[in-house]
Amino acid sequence: MVELGATVEIVNDNNLQPSGTAMRPQTAAKKLGIYLPAAPSEFQERAITHAELRDLHTNPPEWLTELRRTGPYPRPVVAQKLGISVTALKKNDMDKPLDAAEIKELLENQPDWLRAARTAHAESRAEGQPAEGNATKSQDAEATAPAEEEDFVESVEKSLAESEAAIEEASDDAEDSEDADKQ
Question: Which of 14, 18, 30, 152 suits a disulfide with 146, CB 3.0-4.6 Å?
Fold first, then answer.
């Protein structure tokens, strides 16, 4: 369980801006990928320090583990779990928090709009383009990020190999110029 630190302030109408060492509950919930209204009131009603946020990431309490497992999930997490964009959720009036059971049911009995949105999202990711041509910075980053961990590992290995080849080529050029200077 997260212990309350001495630097944490209660966030109220008079104190909407947390200190430089803390963040609003909305920001902390977004960073944790949780739906704020489903979090306990003690989380919702106070500023969260960066140390507490790190602790929540590394040692999540039971409520956080349960919330991540069963939901309800915020819009970006719902979109990710369905394999579609947030824009597709909005276009199909699904712009609401869903829990794990609702997401599972949608995936098992895919309506036409979901099937089409999943196809469009997969194609846009394959092309490295934002889904529906209407992406935010985070969606741009998501659209251009490697789709799977293996792709990421392969891209890192390729980058390392290219770097090593460039270093080797530079070393060879330096040796050639030294040899030319000696003659």
Answer: 152
Distances (CA, A) of 29 to 7, 67, 180: 19, 11, 63
- CB contact set of 40 (below 8 Å; sequence gap of 6+): 63
Gap between the Cα atoms of 9 and 20, Å rounded: 11
Helices vs strands, H then E, count in the chain? 10, 2
β-pairing verdict for 22-23 and 48-49: antiparallel
Q: Return left, alpha or beta for 97; rule: phi > 0 is left, psi -120 to 50 is alpha, else beta.
A: beta
Model confidence pLDDT, tens digit, residues 62-87: 999 999 999 899 999 999 999 998 99
Amino acid residing at 54: R
| Other CB atoms within 10 A of residue 44 CB | 15
3-state DSSP of 53-94: HHHHHHCCCHHHHHHHHHCCECHHHHHHHHCCCHHHHHHCCC
Please give the structure tokens belonging to residue 140. Answer: 């741009």
